[in-house]
Write a structure and sequence with these properties.
The structure holds two protein chains of two kinds.
Chain A (H helix, E strand, L loop, with lengths): L1 H18 L3 H12 L4 H7 L9 H37 L18 H15 L3 E2 L5 E3 H4 L10 H5 L9 E3 L5 H9 L4 E10 L11 E11 L4 H16 L5 E8 L2 E10 L16 E10 L1 H6 L8 E8 H9 L6 H4 L2 H4 L3
Parallel strand pairs in A: 1-4
Antiparallel strand pairs in A: 2-3, 4-5, 5-9, 6-7, 7-8, 8-9
Helix pairs in contact in A: 1-2, 1-4, 2-4, 5-11
Chain B lengths: L1 E3 H7 L7 H10 L3 E7 L5 E14 L2 E10 L22 E6 L9 E11 L13 E2 L3 E3 L2 E3 L1 E3 L35 H4 L5 E6 L10 H12 L12 E5 L5 E4 L5 E10 L8 H9 L7 H13 L4 E4 L7 E6 L5 E3 L5 E3 L5 E4 L4 E4 L3 E2 L12 E8 L1 H11 L4 H6 L5 H17 L4 E4 L2 E4 L6 E4 L2 H8 L5 H10 L3 E3 L4 E4 L9 H12 L20 H15 L3 E2 L5 E2 L3 H4 L24 E2 L4 H13 L6 E10 L10 E11 L4 H14 L6 E5 L6 E11 L2 E9 L1 H6 L6 E7 H4 L18 E10 L4 H11 L4 E10 L8 E10 L8 H17 L3 E2 L2
Parallel strand pairs in B: 12-23, 13-16, 28-31
Antiparallel strand pairs in B: 1-11, 2-11, 3-4, 3-6, 4-5, 6-7, 6-10, 8-9, 14-22, 14-23, 14-24, 15-22, 16-19, 17-18, 19-20, 20-21, 25-27, 26-27, 29-30, 31-32, 32-36, 33-34, 34-35, 35-36, 37-39, 37-40, 38-39
Classes of the chains: A alpha+beta, B alpha+beta.
Chain lengths: 340, 826
């Protein structure tokens, strides 16, 4: 009897599972056969009527049947899940060529980008970043830099004056003096900041622009150190194959003075329209701090020597990012800024 | 300064280099070449030709047919016969021309077929590749080349005054070059002109001789300056003129020489060509000599007609305030007591170092000339020229402060040329009034010190050979370098070091890194805050702007700033570029609004900008000490977003600086340029650090921004001391939280800020968060009310909270809210 019932239940399970098309139908099979009131459970309840000696065998048969049905259900469930997943994945296919979803993103000013590059290089070399006032005493902007009252350079720089003694600094070199007066040796600093010159606005001039001043003062600093430092800097900023060239120049507060060119980073120095065929691009002015400047700031030139340099930030930004008009830097058109 | 290379080579005869080599080497030794141009650029196959016959063109009234002899002596023949198209057996070519200034027998420049000229006959801009001349037919008549005008040769009548106003250049009869020879060379155009950037310390290099001396030292050649010998006549200068300098502080030396029997004529070709190549128009022998010597020696000279000099006396003295004087350009100039004048016994006859007077001008009838070569106080000349508004070639020399020794050399050179060019007879002697000349500068010579300074290892001999090339002598006994008077720039060891470096080559100095003590790289605390500001701003979609620090005095009006407000106490620039750039900003607002307006006018949508900008706040006016320069974070936006978008950015910035507690926004920041109902002070622990709000509609209109716009301005310097970049870990909550939602009926007079403050003050320490999650205004709520719904979360870090504790806290909160006039919504 029981054997036949078991056979029947097993057959029923097989049939219903094969017909099931939704997970609920499978679950229904499980409940109706294996559940508390399921048909197989019912049979187990009838075990008490089975003769004692037959019980192990019958029990074994019931268990086998149960195991077989459980396995069939598991297999049916798995197939069902696979099928459903397949359907879902297929239904969820997207057009991957649709545009991406943008988050509004702000952009740094090209000057800041350029300054960040410079800062990173020099801070990495152990330089401290400092700042000085933009509205400055004549003394710091001129006199302490070896530019006395009657010096022609004073006229050349077209200074904006607030009064006879206070002016808008024309160069960040004034921060050299503040750093030296502070007197903490050795000095290894850069000082970025805004400077002013009475130049009318055009594609290459602005009455406001930015410089980054550099100053190193210590025992035994040489012109060779200046060259080596700025060569490293140029390679870091413009690429490791960059070459530097130092040309004699004149600044009142350095002696010897030089202008530094880098090999054109567009043509590698062969000469192109970007470097006007010269292969070199002028980047900065530099020199050994004039001993008289050290002396005026209270540093003994017999004990200490130093070098200084000044970079035009806008010049770097224009060159590096290929901007052709300085006016764009102060117009703040979003379509311009978004490109940086 | 423009100088033909041939002129330099005249004093450095061994100089052999290409233009490019000269350019490069001079630049690297410190005489920077700005540019150089070949005068014979695009001039090809141009020979001297003689017009044998001129016949009418059979078919054109305005054309003539010339037979031009272009083949001459084989020794001077420039283009061989085999390369001349259309050459007849008699050595002529046929050329058709439209020029009307020719006669048979004229000798002219001829470009042969297949050659090239620099420009058109109209003298317009020169085409880059020049113009090729081909053989062809003009109205049916064969033409094998072209007769050239001076413009076609790339020059002008200014430089070749003998050239006709219109038509072909005809070589002057008295000095005709050989037929068939190089016409370009005959015109002095086989040359290149170099333009230098001379640094202000090298006064001596504003002269051909100065540059030639540098060139000789650069290329290691001998420098051979002109040998000056003046052949004097029988008369004595002292019988003609006396000189008195009343203001020796402004006139360090006054040299005067006199030439009699002056004959004004044309200068010789070589002088005209050199002047022309240097960009100076040849006039006549006398004027040309003064110009030539000015270029050659860097010493401007003045020539007076001695017959106009009253009393035959020169007095050098200051003018008086209010004096007027007519300069030789016929303009009347206003003078003052600091302007130095050249006077005769009766009147002023020239402004010293700037320009001579109309009243003593040289005319073609001049018989006796008084030459002046003087040195004046440079800064005074510069300032005088500026005040008078007259900067001349001469003043730009004098303002550099010239070498008194050079004045004598130059005046003697001029007299030599006067005599050699048969321009006049030089009288004996020079009247010389001078302050004692400065003693030569001596610089102690320590090669080790120079090497230590440069980081080099040059021998003493190497250094001395550099000095020798530069005419610096070595006093071995004193171990000093003696500096010649023309090198006013050399004063100390560092200057000698530069000379050594320049002529051994900057390139040959090694590259090393400072071997000295290690230092730590660092940025200032303010830069750290600025960096956070930038990061936050970028994250919220704000792009970085930069604006000018100066603005128009009209700005406060545009921003509706009240008359007596602090923002109107501004620093003014004495000499601004213009009124609109004359005032140092006290607010970053104008720059921001101007930038937003630019974007609005360019139809850019949803613009968000920020600027880290300085403002300049005077401690007192007029300025006696340096002002406060305060750094501001200015945010501005229009388009997507509102007040609360901006507020979120502000809060995020403060949070990025570690400022999370006690941040408050208090209605009404008192800003005239913001919407009165939509502006807030930003406070941290009760102290104001900034403000923000919607821009006032009138201000929007003033700036022509057609949308609502929002501004925030945070004083970065106030944030710096409050900032804390150190994270402080407080653990992860391990015990469960309990959360309560309440919906409140709130009269419009009560702000969310007040409610949140009340909740926080009454909910006790276990309140973890209080979050507004719903705002409702509408039909279901009475007019004058709104509904605000808050979620309050409580948690205790050490244990699980009891229901009763939270209930007690909520009771306290609710009763406090009730006192504010709030009720719970059902």
């Amino acid at each position: 009897m029981i054997q036949q019932d078991l056979e029947r239940i097993r057959e029923e399970a097989r049939r219903r599972l094969s017909e099931a098309s939704v997970p609920e139908a499978v679950e229904k099979v499980r409940v109706e056969i294996l559940g508390k009131k399921g048909s197989l459970t019912e049979i187990l309840k009838g075990m008490k009527d089975v003769a004692q000696e037959d019980r192990p065998e019958v029990g074994q048969m019931v268990n086998d049947t149960r195991a077989a049905i459980e396995e069939a259900i598991r297999s049916a469930q798995q197939k069902m899940e696979e099928k459903l997943l397949k359907e879902r994945l297929s239904a969820e296919t997207i057009d991957v060529t649709l545009p991406g979803k943008e988050l509004p993103q702000g952009h740094l000013h090209p000057n800041t980008r350029a300054l960040n590059e410079l800062k990173e290089i020099f801070v990495g070399m152990g330089y401290e970043v400092m700042e000085g006032p933009e509205i400055e005493k004549d003394y710091y902007n001129f006199e302490a830099l070896n530019i006395p009252a009657d010096h022609p350079a004073k006229d050349e720089q077209d200074t904006f004056y607030i009064n006879g003694d206070i002016l808008l600094r024309t160069q960040t070199s004034s921060t050299q003096i503040h750093a030296m007066e502070a007197g903490r040796m050795p000095i290894r600093m850069i000082a970025p900041g805004r400077v002013y010159r009475s130049d009318a606005v055009d594609a290459t001039h602005s009455p406001t622009f930015h410089q980054v001043e550099g100053l190193v003062v210590d025992k035994g600093i040489t012109f060779a150190d200046l060259k080596g430092t700025l060569d490293e800097f140029s390679k870091a900023l413009f690429g490791k194959d960059t070459k530097t060239r130092f040309r004699p120049h004149h600044f009142p507060f350095t002696e010897p003075s030089a202008e530094m060119d880098v090999s054109c980073f567009k043509c590698g120095g062969k000469g192109c329209s970007f470097c006007k065929g010269e292969g070199w691009i002028e980047i900065l002015g530099c020199g050994m701090v004039h001993p008289h400047v050290l002396e005026m700031s209270g540093i003994d030139p017999k004990e200490y020597t130093g070098f200084a340099f000044g970079v035009g930030l806008e010049r770097i930004a224009l060159l590096k990012y290929g901007i052709d008009d300085m006016r764009l830097l102060y117009e703040n058109d979003a379509r311009f800024l978004e490109q940086f | 300064m423009n100088t033909p290379l041939s002129w330099i080579k005249a004093y450095v005869p061994d100089l052999a280099c290409t233009d490019q080599e000269y350019n490069d080497k001079m630049t690297l030794s410190g005489t920077k070449v700005e540019r150089f141009i070949r005068l014979d650029k695009n001039l090809e196959k141009i020979v001297v030709g003689k017009i044998l016959t001129i016949d009418r063109h059979p078919d054109a009234d305005k054309l003539v047919v010339c037979r031009v002899q272009v083949l001459g002596d084989a020794k001077t023949q420039f283009v061989p016969a085999a390369e001349i198209t259309g050459l007849a057996e008699d050595g002529t070519v046929q050329i058709v021309t439209g020029a009307s200034n020719l006669t048979e027998g004229d000798v002219v420049p001829v470009v042969l077929a297949g050659g090239r000229v620099a420009g058109g006959h109209d003298g317009g801009p020169l085409p880059a590749e020049g113009i090729e001349i081909r053989a062809g037919k003009l109205r049916g008549v064969e033409s094998n080349g072209m007769l050239c005008s001076i413009e076609e040769l790339g020059s002008s009548r200014d430089m070749y005054p003998e050239a006709p106003e219109e038509g072909i250049y005809v070589f002057p009869k008295k000095n005709e070059p050989a037929i068939g020879s190089d016409a370009v060379a005959a015109l002095g155009l086989r040359d290149s002109v170099f333009e230098y950037e001379i640094t202000s310390n090298r006064v001596d290099c504003y002269s051909v001789l100065g540059v030639a001396r540098e060139a000789a030292a650069t290329f290691g050649c001998d420098f051979i300056p002109p040998q000056v010998e003046v052949k004097e006549g029988p008369e004595k200068a002292g019988d003609y003129i006396s000189v008195e300098v009343k203001d020796p502080d402004l006139c360090t030396r006054y040299c005067a020489r006199v030439c009699t029997d002056v004959k004004i004529a044309e200068s010789p070709e070589w002088m005209k060509r050199r002047l022309a190549a240097a960009g100076i128009r040849p006039i006549n022998n006398l004027v040309d000599i003064t110009n030539y010597v000015m270029l050659e020696y860097g010493q401007p000279m003045h020539a007076f007609d001695l017959d106009t000099v009253a009393g035959h006396k020169i007095i050098v003295r200051r003018a008086q305030d209010g004096d007027e004087f007519q300069t030789l350009d016929e303009q009347v100039r206003k003078l003052d007591k600091d302007v130095l004048m050249i006077c005769d016994a009766e009147k002023e006859i020239g402004i010293a170092g700037i320009m001579g007077g109309e009243n003593s001008k040289i005319t073609d009838h001049v018989k006796t000339v008084l030459f002046e070569a003087a040195t004046f106080n440079g800064p005074n000349i510069r300032k005088s020229a500026k005040r008078i508004g007259l900067r001349t070639d001469a003043s730009s020399f004098f303002e550099k402060g010239l070498d008194p020794a050079n004045a004598e050399a130059a005046i003697n050179r001029a007299c030599q040329l006067m005599q050699e060019l048969s321009c006049g007879t030089v009288t004996q002697g020079m009247i010389d009034v001078k302050e004692p000349l400065k003693e030569a500068v001596r610089i102690p010579f320590t090669p080790e010190e120079i090497n230590a300074f440069l980081g080099t290892d040059y021998s003493k001999e190497t250094m001395l050979s550099v000095f020798d090339r530069l005419e610096l002598s070595y006093d071995e006994a004193a171990n000093e370098i003696v500096v010649p008077s023309f090198r006013q720039d050399l004063k100390a060891m560092c200057d000698l070091a530069e000379e050594v470096a320049r002529f051994t080559g900057y390139d040959n100095i090694p590259m090393t890194l400072p071997k000295s003590s290690a230092t730590m790289g660092a940025v200032t605390p303010r830069m750290k805050v600025e960096e956070k500001a930038r990061q936050t701003a970028l994250h919220y979609g704000f792009s970085e702007a930069m604006t000018y620090s100066f603005e128009s005095p009209k700005t406060p009006d545009r921003l509706l700033i009240p008359e007596d407000a602090r923002e109107r106490k501004t620093i003014r620039i004495m000499n601004p570029l213009g009124e609109e750039f004359s005032m140092m900003r006290t607010l970053p607002v104008n720059g921001m609004l101007t930038s937003l307006a630019t974007n609005y006018s360019h139809r850019n949508k949803d613009v968000r900008l920020f600027e880290i900008a300085s403002v300049y706040l005077p401690k007192s006016l007029p300025l006696t000490e340096l002002p406060d320069e305060r750094r501001q974070l200015a945010l501005g936006m229009y388009g997507a977003g509102d007040f609360f978008t901006m507020k979120a950015a502000v809060e995020a910035f403060l949070k990025s600086c570690g400022i999370t507690k006690d941040v408050e926004f208090e209605a009404d920041a008192g800003k005239s340029f913001l919407h009165p109902g939509r502006q807030a002070k930003i406070l941290v622990s009760g102290a104001q650090i900034g403000y923000m709000g919607e821009v006032h509609p009138i201000v929007l209109k003033n700036y022509e921004i057609g949308e609502r716009a929002y501004l925030a301005d945070i004083d970065v310097d106030s944030v710096v001391p409050l900032s804390d970049f150190e994270p402080h870990y407080t653990g992860i909550a391990r015990f469960p939280a309990m959360s309560r939602d309440i919906a409140l009926l709130v009269p419009n007079t009560v702000t969310a800020g007040q409610i949140e403050k009340t909740i926080r003050e009454n909910a006790g320490e276990q309140l973890e968060s209080c979050r507004l999650f719903d705002i409702y205004e509408g039909k279901q709520i009475g007019i004058g009310f709104k509904s605000l719904a808050y979620n309050l979360t409580f948690r205790n870090k050490e244990r699980t909270l009891e229901e009763a504790e939270v209930n007690a806290a909520m009771d306290k909160v609710l009763s406090a809210l009730k006192e504010l006039g709030l009720t719970l919504r059902g």
